[in-house]
Write a structure and sequence with these properties.
With about 900 residues, the protein is α/β, with parallel strands linked by helices. Helices cover about 30% and strands about 15% of the residues. The strands form ten sheets. The protein has a seven-stranded mixed sheet with strand order 14-13-27-26-25-15-16, sandwiched between helices. The chain has a six-stranded mixed sheet with strand order 33-35-34-37-32-36. The chain has a five-stranded mixed sheet with strand order 2-1-5-3-4, with helices on both faces.
């Protein structure tokens, strides 16, 4: 420890602490422009200068470390005069329009001028005259207000790792610009807004739909409602409207957001929001009271249950709703209706993860934490376009490469943006993941690169795996995957050589008819090299929606109660019967695809859908529509009139994440709060209130006054959540399960010392072809995925003007050779046909796909990719094969 003085007070701090850090810990404010705790200090702005006794000049507090015996003065006369002169110089080339500036009230320059009583500049000279750049749909750039602190440049290059902007020219002409003086819209900018968030002046400002000043807004911290990262952010509210979003410096995002989290909030107050219950009469929706809607639903539930039995009813919970709401939804069906027919969209994304990892490791969740990507020395990304689908994790992967020297392996059917950072890029055929993993393991076994001690002490069934792998060569894998065998060998050696190798994957691995085997193969590779059960490693499935992890945890699955407790276990059944006070069914319920099949066959009569849109998200949409139209009764509970809701008999208007309290569980198992920022829109109600009121009318008389009471019940029946409550979540910034007791700190990474199942299980998995391959009639393989500027079925992002400007319509990516063969030009509308249907979409001719592969985003209802996709199921977990189907393309002759 170093002993020193600040403003006459004797203090101690660790060696290496800067003056600024030491002062901050003491509650002493030193002003800054360029400083950011996430960046290496560079002392550009000099506003943080302090006086250090015996030093020849004033020192920059942000970059000067404390020293033994140092005496520091933070507001001495020389310091104040220096700061005043800096402000004086800055104002000499700065517009004095604070009264009308959008940044007023949140501008560091304005605040410091007020503090030091600077009302203008005594210096006269040339002033900048830049045209304001309005090209980006989310924010504008006004270089006339830039003070060249360079913080935006450093955040973009060191944290976001996009390199979209830099400093051009010298002296007075110095300015921030994209390369080649392009406007910001035509640069590498991904519209994350992280530069905007740190700008200390009005040089970078979000575009606004309405005027407000920062002094008149209320600020509420909450959790992002988009992907599974669980970014913390602030909602700025005026007149019951969310007018801006800002990132929070907290786990897991550390002050970063993506374009959707930062700017995709205008759906909250959108005029299309459902505001009253709707009942379909003679094919037309009419507004109704809540009591009318409830009565129709309750009567139908009772009627169908009495006539056909409980298993003629089913429910779909939602990855976009809170833990508390998903818990009540499964409780409604299990305890009140008496069926286990409850599922949700995890069936379509990570059902194979839950099944595969539960088998091999004992737990079907991400093994490690998001922050640990920075500790990895080898990162293997496969089946994930991480910078677009989980942008903050993508940024952290790039930070690990740039700042910590991590090696990167990427295996994807498209040359995604991360491929340019990769040490090895394997452009594999869709559906060949098992062949690739077996090829990698073949090299590792052949060259003796595996972790013998780990395998001997912590795993079982290695001999069976070895039989499969030794019969499978890297050459065979290369042939199946259509990649260079030397790249497979290089990737295997890099992964095996790493002390900390972390695998990150998403739906490119899981959405296959052999998805469970794909997941098990990844587990095999990690176990082979001892990369589970310690920091910076792991098998890390990236969850696609904000609460898909939580919905699974809450038992919104047909075969498990909350906490993955089996419904067919007599002991577990008895436990929940005692907790809920109802007799429960011991039979596993229907999965989502099975529900649709039963509906089409007139065996399922009533379906209650909460916050899901299967008429866009599910494979073979024509089949989905036929099934939903064949139901006797369909209830949809949502915030907008979705494509699925249009088929409903009753629609119940729910509130958005900004209008309720609750919790989400992110991809790293972190349980986080969402907090009510505005009153409900119209007569909409929180999903948990709706479910509670329906349960009450069906005879379950339990009233919850707040979601925190539901969480207390969840903790009582769910071992992983046993120590979690709202107070602890707020105090500790979220808790990672398992957290079994109230004095447990939560679990950063799983399987330390031992696996949940005891010893980890190697699974001898051989490669199987996809259910459908290209042939003479359908010569191309279609694979689908997500893109940065849209989300899921566009229920929310489809109401955000800027996002629709960036990604307005469906398209298909086609290799130039394939396009030329069919005489198709870029931007042309073409027909795409599979065995299940045909669509029209726009051709995008690109070289990031191979010539026999085409790619489509699945978000769009018009030109819907899922009209084409295959609903063949994985026999283990019933996930459909969304990632591989055979298609043909046709030019439309005029």
């Amino acid at each position: 420890m170093v002993t020193f003085k600040i403003n006459g007070q004797v203090v101690k701090a660790p060696e290496g602490t800067t003056i600024l850090e030491a002062a901050k810990k003491m509650g002493i404010e030193i002003p800054t422009f360029c400083y950011d705790s996430r960046l290496k200090p560079h002392g550009t702005c000099r506003i943080c200068v302090v006086e250090v006794e015996k030093a020849k000049s004033l020192q920059a507090a942000c970059s000067t470390p404390i020293a033994e015996g140092m005496s520091i003065w933070t507001e001495s006369e020389p310091v104040v005069e220096a700061r005043k002169e800096i402000l004086n110089l800055l104002l000499s080339n700065h517009p004095l329009d604070c009264l009308t500036c959008d940044k007023s009230g949140n501008c560091t320059l304005q605040a410091l001028c007020q503090k030091y009583n600077i009302t203008g500049s005594t210096h006269q000279g040339q002033k900048s005259r830049y045209e304001r750049d309005e090209s980006n749909p989310f924010y504008y750039v006004d270089l006339n207000k830039c003070i060249l602190c360079r913080k935006c440049v450093l955040v973009c290059s060191e944290l976001q790792c996009s390199d979209a902007i830099g400093v051009a020219d010298r002296g007075f002409a110095s300015h921030i610009t994209p390369p080649f003086e392009k406007d910001i819209e035509h640069s590498n900018c991904v519209s994350c807004g992280n530069c905007v968030a740190v700008c200390p002046t009005g040089a970078l400002v979000p575009k606004r739909k309405e005027k407000f000043s920062y002094g008149e807004v209320q600020i509420v911290q909450t959790t992002c409602p988009y992907c599974g990262v669980g970014c913390q952010m602030e909602l700025l509210v005026k007149n019951n409207k969310v007018v801006e979003v800002r990132p929070v410096f907290a786990k897991p995002n550390d002050g970063l957001l993506c374009v959707k989290g930062r700017f995709g909030f205008n759906f909250i107050n959108h005029p299309d929001r459902l505001k009253k219950p709707l009942i379909k009469k003679n094919g037309t929706f009419v507004e109704a009271t809540w009591e009318e809607a409830y009565q129709i639903i309750v009567d139908k539930i009772k009627e169908i249950k009495e006539k056909y039995g409980s298993d003629a009813l089913a429910g779909l919970a939602s990855a976009r709703c809170t833990n508390e709401e998903n818990y009540l939804m499964q409780k409604l069906f299990r305890a009140v209706i008496r069926t286990n027919n409850i599922d949700h969209c995890a069936r379509l994304c990570h059902a194979s993860t839950v099944a595969g990892l539960a088998t091999t490791l004992g737990s079907g969740a991400m093994t490690n934490s998001i922050a640990e990507v920075l500790d990895a020395d080898v990162i293997f990304v496969t089946g994930s376009n991480t910078t677009e689908t989980h942008p903050v994790i993508g940024a952290k992967i790039r930070q690990a490469i740039r700042h910590n020297g991590a090696k990167l392996i990427v295996a994807e059917p498209r040359r995604i943006d991360l491929a340019k950072d990769a040490d090895v890029f394997l452009q594999i055929k869709p559906g060949t993941n098992v062949a690739l993993m077996n090829g990698l393991m073949s090299v590792i076994l052949e060259e003796g690169l595996y972790d013998e001690d780990f395998i001997r002490n912590r795993t079982e069934n290695f001999s069976e795996l070895k039989k499969i792998i030794t019969a499978f060569s890297a050459e065979k894998a290369a042939e199946i995957c259509d990649v260079d065998v030397q790249d497979i060998r290089k990737a295997a050696r890099i992964y095996a050589a790493g002390e900390k190798g972390a695998i990150y994957y998403a739906m490119g691995i899981t959405q296959h008819s052999t998805g469970t085997q794909h997941v098990m193969s990844i587990s095999n590779l990690a176990l082979l090299c001892g990369n589970i059960g310690k920091e910076g490693v792991g098998v890390n499935p990236l969850r696609g929606q904000n609460n898909v992890q939580g919905a699974c945890d809450m038992g919104a699955l047909p075969n498990v109660y909350p906490g993955y407790q089996k419904v067919n276990s007599p002991e577990v059944q008895e436990k929940f019967e005692k907790a809920w006070g109802f007799k429960l069914s011991p039979n596993a319920g229907l999965t989502l695809p099975e529900m649709l099949e039963k509906a089409e066959n007139n065996e399922l009569k009533l379906l209650y859908i909460m916050g899901e849109n299967p008429l866009v998200s599910d494979p073979d949409i024509n089949h989905v529509r036929k099934a939903l139209e064949n139901l006797d009764f369909l209830v949809v509970q949502d915030i907008f009139l979705t494509e699925t809701a249009q088929l409903a008999d009753v629609i119940l208007p729910a509130v958005s994440f900004a209008e309720k309290d609750g919790t989400f569980t992110n991809t790293e198992r972190r349980v986080q709060l969402i907090q009510k920022a505005i009153k409900p829109i119209g007569d909409a109600k929180p999903d948990w209130v709706i479910l509670m009121e329906i349960m009450d009318r069906l005879g379950y008389k339990k009233e919850y006054l707040h979601p925190s009471e539901i969480m207390e019940e969840i903790a009582a029946v769910t071992p992983q959540y046993g120590g979690i409550n709202y107070f602890r979540i707020k105090q500790e910034g979220g808790l990672q399960w398992p957290c079994p007791t109230k004095d447990h700190p939560g679990t950063k990474y799983l399987h330390q010392g031992h696996f949940t199942r005891g010893k980890a299980l190697f699974m001898a998995v051989d490669y199987q072809q996809p259910a459908e391959n290209a042939d003479e009639d359908y010569p191309l393989i279609l694979t689908t995925g997500r893109i940065l500027y849209q989300y899921h079925t566009r229920t929310m992002t489809g109401r955000v003007e800027g996002l629709n400007k960036k990604a307005p319509e469906s398209y298909i990516e086609i290799h130039p050779e394939t396009a030329n063969k069919h005489k198709i030009e870029d931007g042309e509308i073409i027909r795409v046909i599979s065995r299940r249907g045909a669509i029209f979409t726009k051709a995008r001719v690109v070289d990031i796909v191979n010539k026999n592969i085409v790619f489509m985003p699945f978000h769009y209802a018009e030109g819907a990719a899922n009209v084409l996709t295959n609903n063949t199921l994985d026999e283990n977990c019933k996930i459909p094969e969304l990632k591989v189907c055979a298609v043909k393309i046709e030019k439309i002759e005029i």
